[in-house]
Write a structure and sequence with these properties.
With about 200 residues, this protein is mainly α. The chain has one domain. The chain contains nine helices and two strands; from the N terminus they run H-H-E-E-H-H-H-H-H-H-H. Strands 1-2 form a two-stranded antiparallel sheet. About 5% of the residues have low confidence.
């Protein structure tokens, strides 16, 4: 599965933010602003929520990937890489980045040096400074951190074909089982993909 298709399919299962969630996030923002300011543009509330959700999700998935790595079970590792990539796609959507421009087979050999923890840590640091201090987010610094984190995830898959066919396709197949039509809270709790 190519990255353009993955990004489109992954976002089909993203939760539309309820007014309650939007109000909760707005109340956190400095000065009550509902827009995320970056060096290139201002984000609307949905995109701001996607950025927060995506970065926090990447942080959580790093922990799950660590646990899966400790089991040594390849299918669990690849599943967690897929979940990590789903949150990475959410960040890319929020920042209006085309994933396929920054992650590609031709660059696979360069991803070995990428540091997932450092990349996600930098994303979280930018998010913290925006949320807590109202500092505009640098699009370039965010993109560099995202590329570090996502490049490391790609490399963890073993090779580009495994990344596309097992990680990305496997993640979308799982989400199609869990959310046949679209995201619902009920389906998220029931996790049909884990049944049986």
């Amino acid at each position: 599965m190519d990255l353009k298709t993955y990004a489109k399919e992954a976002q089909r299962t993203a939760k539309d933010q309820s007014q309650e969630t939007i109000c909760r996030v707005q109340s956190i923002l400095i000065g009550g602003s509902n827009a995320l300011t970056t060096t290139a543009h201002i984000m609307d509330t949905q995109r701001s929520n996607d950025l927060i959700h995506g970065i926090l999700g990447m942080v959580g998935e790093m922990g799950e990937l660590k646990l899966a790595t400790e089991t040594g079970k390849l299918y669990e590792i690849l599943e967690e890489i897929g979940d990590f990539c789903w949150y990475g796609a959410l960040v890319a959507r929020a920042m209006q980045w085309d994933m396929s421009l920054y992650l590609c087979k031709d660059n696979f050999g360069n991803y070995w040096a990428n540091d997932m923890v450092q990349g996600v840590g930098q994303l979280a640091e930018h998010l913290k400074k925006w949320l807590m201090y109202g500092k505009p987010i640098s699009d370039v610094q965010m993109l560099n951190a995202w590329c570090d984190a996502m490049g490391a995830a790609v490399h963890r898959a073993g090779d580009w074909d495994s990344f596309e066919n097992e990680v990305l396709k496997g993640n979308i197949d799982k989400l199609r089982l869990r959310f046949p039509e679209q995201f619902t809270e009920k389906a998220a709790i029931e996790r049909a993909d884990k049944a049986g």
